[in-house]
Amino acid sequence: VASRTLDGKNLNEFRRAIYVRAVDVYNLPWDYPLEIHIMTKEEFDEAFAKRRKKMVKVET
Hints:
- About 45% of the residues lie in helices and about 0% in strands.
- It contains 2 helices and no strands.
- The protein is flat and about 50 Å long.
- The chain starts with 7 loop residues before the first helix and ends in a 12-residue tail after the last helix.
């Protein structure tokens, strides 16, 4: 989750950095298909608001 909205150039640089790190860390081939989803906190909250669950303490 990005702390701010990125413009086109910065977003591409960020995606490239994530891809390079994934290839290096996980020893993936360079042509391995990765889906990279980058969104702000507000976009994340909006997208996943329906899936968010509230934890409730249950006494047994």
